[in-house]
Fold these 2 entries.
Entry 1:
Amino acid sequence: MGRPMFKREDVRTGLWPERVTIMDVGPRDGLQNEPYMLPTEQKIRLISGLVDAGVKCIQVTSFVHPKVVPQMADAAEVVAGLLPRSGICYFALIPNEKGYERALAAGLRHVGLVLSATETMNQKNLNMSVPQSMAIAKRLLQRAKSDGLTVRVDVSVAFVCAYEGVVDPQKVIAQTEELFRFGADQVCLCDTTGRADPGQVAYLFAETRRRHGGERLAGHFHNTYDMAIANTLAAMQQGIAFFDASIAGLGGCPYSPGATGNTPTEDVVYLCRQMGVETGIDLEKLCDISELVRTFSGKLPPSAYYRATRVKQTDGLVTT
Amino acid sequence: MGRPMFKREDVRTGLWPERVTIMDVGPRDGLQNEPYMLPTEQKIRLISGLVDAGVKCIQVTSFVHPKVVPQMADAAEVVAGLLPRSGICYFALIPNEKGYERALAAGLRHVGLVLSATETMNQKNLNMSVPQSMAIAKRLLQRAKSDGLTVRVDVSVAFVCAYEGVVDPQKVIAQTEELFRFGADQVCLCDTTGRADPGQVAYLFAETRRRHGGERLAGHFHNTYDMAIANTLAAMQQGIAFFDASIAGLGGCPYSPGATGNTPTEDVVYLCRQMGVETGIDLEKLCDISELVRTFSGKLPPSAYYRATRVKQTDGLVTT
């Protein structure tokens, strides 16, 4: 298939990035939500496969307490097993100071904090109040500055909370502003519940971009309501150029056939490729990694691109 | 969940319709591609259920030769079994003059023709050349005018052809212009292969709207590459306000689990509801019809909204 025969500029409603960075969160956010335990060497193979496919930024693990998330007990071993490669950003999630120290000791240069936009979600997910989480973020951001680490902060349920419903965007705008004032290098607005719509996404990214510039903002969408690609489009139209996605949709709820969680990386790369936006990722090599995920998960990846191009099917009758 | 706390006007990049009409194509385009035969009374039950849910426009059947499409052999019986309801548009596909006469005899007032944007697809699907199809369309449009029927024309593979690749939009623009000159009441640009991207969609609808106005154009998207919602969004941003969709995604290829064809009506209605665009359709009543489809198809509908709200699943661990 060639490129469409018109200028991309003609159809770029709103702002558009020339290039988009995709952080693959499969090895952490994905695997953490899968029912099986993946051996360390398999995790390393997955991560290096992603790098080979052109993924420049990977969330490789999380330095949480092994009792809380047994899947991530091998965090230090995973990091130790990664080849340093120029231009590649290995990134780990850290829940607190202890995690920060472990990540630092493991030699990581990029860490991520997480907190919530709503009080109830923060209590349920992190067992503390939003002000407590903000205080920890402030301290860790100061330490990271002096240690020379880059830090991003994920704001979960930035659009719709499972407990509190639609989140007031003014709250998220204020929280984002505070996090940048504390020294965050990037703030990621996360649609944890998959309930954000393109209108909410456009509004929140337009408002935060106007204040902080597009290059320090990221979007993390879930495909639960099939809105992830439309939300990515809406964010790109606001000039956002950094998105999380998960190889083979890792982390989709395994209990319901076809239910999806994280947006499959393949589909975001496909969207970008079709829109003429550079990602540096080779889609076919990426799908080879989806095959690898399929072998160890035993599940058909929810990625539409993967299914349309790698799963054999008899041609149906086509009329319109 | 309440409405987001900002004005929709603030985020309406491009044009936006206040109200969108959705034509459910499940009873025709959907069932035609399913492997089982649905009894006539079940088809009628399905159609009246859609009307009860607020769907104003339904593609109820196709007057094709029963040998070609046995599923549609009961076309006249289906039409005879429908209650006339004010404000409801029952619509049938007709492949040729013979089909036109059968539809007229059955008492239908709204008919649809189909032809392709590319020569190869037209030969494979309709066994004639594009000029031959255009000549038939011209004759039938003239007859329909004098018979007082409304006619829409579906242009299949308007974006990407399975045989010829990316379609030159100038060809589709010229074809659309000719069809309106012949007297078409509506032209529907169909992404038959599901390979259209939001850039192509924005371009083609912007160009055709500029020439003919948004109110005579319709979009028909497939979700094969998970682009249907983003494509619908892109078309709405160009002021398009008429979309095809299929209840419970009827017509998705049954051979590959999760592979999707027609965009599920539920998901388009959900997008519109979230974006504050009126459809007149009650989403929960619509999902009751999805349940009905599930019972006779024996398949879990591919609609994300249906799965997220009607399928029980254990809550997964949520962090970002």
Entry 2:
Amino acid sequence: MSATPSEPATEEVTACLIVIGNEILSGRTRDANLSYLAKGLNDVGVQLREARVIPDIEKVIVHTVNECRAAFDYVFTTGGIGPTHDDITSASIAKAFGVALRRDPGVVAAFERYYAGERGIELNAARLRMADFPEGAEILNNAITIAPGYRMENVFVFAGVPKIMQAMFDEVKHGLVGGKVILSRTVTGHLSEGAIAADLDRLQALYPDIDIGSYPFFGKGKFGTSIVMRGADATRLEAAAQDVRALMRDQGVAPIDGEPE
Amino acid sequence: MSATPSEPATEEVTACLIVIGNEILSGRTRDANLSYLAKGLNDVGVQLREARVIPDIEKVIVHTVNECRAAFDYVFTTGGIGPTHDDITSASIAKAFGVALRRDPGVVAAFERYYAGERGIELNAARLRMADFPEGAEILNNAITIAPGYRMENVFVFAGVPKIMQAMFDEVKHGLVGGKVILSRTVTGHLSEGAIAADLDRLQALYPDIDIGSYPFFGKGKFGTSIVMRGADATRLEAAAQDVRALMRDQGVAPIDGEPE
């Protein structure tokens, strides 16, 4: 469970996302990073196994980061690395690792060129806070902002703004050491899940290597159920999908490949 | 921290949301319940302090529920109470509380009327699973579905489908024992947060009773920063908002009340 990224790929490589921000917990802002991260991680064989949304409170961040970095192969944090007083992620990460915050001269030089040079904006004390990193951090530049994210061992520290978070993740994604890539197949039918539940239960027993999920939907006068099959073996996945299509037809319902429209 | 709902209101009443579902962690489905719950809880003086997204794995559900119900005044779970094999929330909740699952005769009778009676649908074994509750559960009916949610001590167990989850929450919301209601005020300006970070830091020190958050935004050719102030005292909140407007004007920027358009 606690493989570091430099170790060889195992069958199952796990990740946890820690969303840091009062604005998510107050309901002001809806997180948009989880699904992007989940899909991107799966592309490289890493399974997002848990996500936590926590407030901008140092002791909570320290505790959560330490718990999660011990329990998962990779941890990603989003939020709290900007220039303002409520951006306390880096100080908290430093505390979690028991190291000091250190100002990085290379990042300061880049800020000087960017702010004072190109833009004629004051490189003030607040902006310089974004050049402070926990001792030992690997600095990760990105295509969108001058302020970098970074990595401490198996913990990646990213911005919360989705465009920036995504740019930061895209930079590191292909450097992650993954395991099996999980493939997914969806079959949808306009029937209630209760009608096929017993059949699905039998199917799940026949396909222990495939995770079969049943997701009902409602709305716009339509209802139905999507059956999502996830597994590493494309042949087995197609066999399971065939069986799901058949059990829908047994109910007099035409199966549709994919999600509902 | 571990007040039960029947105890008198304290100053701060906390809650945790546990989102149960592989479909969220795979990125297939975006959670839509957190923000609804956060806002609804705040209406009645309960603060959402953490959220966790976990997979449909019994031992993870048991561990997470037990950890969170000890740490927060209220816990809400969403997902996994339907009729299919992957709906394992109720069995897991029973295990977390060390009790058995018990079929409720009143719910069975309601199912018999609804399925077999009104709709002429078979009340099969799968649908009957939705009449199984952990021993001691208080059954919570709702306006949308015949299948109820329930409450075990300080843990509320709801469906994952947003419309159903919201209906279930609306039924219990005004029965929650809350503390202070947190008010919110937002001032937005078309400036970078780095320009006002030092001023905001000073302001936060002047208003320790107000949580001041700074949230930059980008997009559609516009950029700027929203300052969100949260606190229980409307007068203090307005004073802080006045100060934020003033510091934006000092930067030559017209403050806008509310979120960016």
